[in-house]
């Protein structure tokens, strides 16, 4: 903005043929009311071209704003997690019976379901033996080892987050910010940020 101001707002801006952008110029009027009328006729929201941005900038901004707003609306809950209260699980069961499944109880069920089907990480010793038999210095084997290491790390992180989420919902541990983000993401059928940080690159980001 400072660069744009220095470049555009000069004495030449008062010349009749000067335009800050197409349709944005200083009109040659005679009274204050005429200038006020001209100002009121300007668009309530400036186009990207008015500050020399590409037209697609408005599309990108609107998309990001909409996604942020929808995520905020979806994250609103009527019930906060009860922490550090003895018998928290029983409290949730009582609430489920009267008000229906809560966000936390739904996420807890998803976590338990995922934990029951989550494969175990690869055995590093058995893996080393198999890769050595294939030729550990071959480029394809090196690539395979890197992929397996990444998958094993992802499995460990996934299991850790799911286990900690169940414990936090049950009141056994504190629900920290990282777990809260994971809880919100799973509830919205999205991949938690902690998983994305160690996962393989992909063009999709949902469950």
Automatic annotation (TrEMBL):
Pfam families: Dynein_C. Gene3D superfamilies: 1.20.1270.280, Region D6 of dynein motor. Residues 94-199 form the Dynein heavy chain C-terminal domain. It comes from the Eukaryota. GO terms for cellular component: dynein complex. One of its GO terms (molecular function) is dynein light intermediate chain binding. GO terms for biological process: microtubule-based movement. PANTHER family: DYNEIN HEAVY CHAIN 1, AXONEMAL-LIKE PROTEIN (PTHR46961), DYNEIN HEAVY CHAIN 5, AXONEMAL (PTHR46961:SF19). This is Dynein_C domain-containing protein. The lineage of its organism: Eukaryota, Metazoa, Spiralia, Lophotrochozoa, Platyhelminthes.
């Amino acid at each position: 903005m400072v660069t744009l101001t220095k470049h555009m707002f000069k004495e030449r801006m008062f010349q009749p043929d000067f335009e800050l952008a197409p349709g944005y110029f200083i009109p040659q009027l005679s009274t204050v009311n005429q200038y006020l009328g001209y100002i009121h006729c300007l668009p309530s929201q400036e186009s990207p071209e008015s500050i020399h941005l590409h037209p697609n900038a408005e599309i990108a901004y609107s998309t990001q704003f909409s996604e942020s707003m929808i995520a905020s609306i979806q994250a609103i809950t009527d019930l906060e997690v009860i922490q550090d209260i003895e018998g928290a699980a029983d409290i949730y069961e009582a609430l489920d019976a009267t008000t229906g499944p809560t966000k936390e109880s739904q996420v807890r069920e998803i976590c338990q379901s995922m934990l029951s089907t989550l494969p175990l990480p690869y055995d590093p010793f058995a893996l080393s033996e198999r890769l050595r038999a294939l030729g550990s210095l071959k480029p394809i084997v090196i690539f395979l080892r890197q992929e397996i290491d990444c998958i094993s790390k992802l499995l460990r992180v996934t299991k850790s987050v799911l286990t900690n989420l169940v414990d936090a919902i049950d009141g056994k541990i504190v629900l920290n910010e990282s777990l809260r983000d994971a809880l919100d993401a799973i509830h919205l059928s999205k991949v938690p940020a902690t998983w994305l940080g160690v996962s393989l690159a992909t063009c999709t980001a949902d469950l």
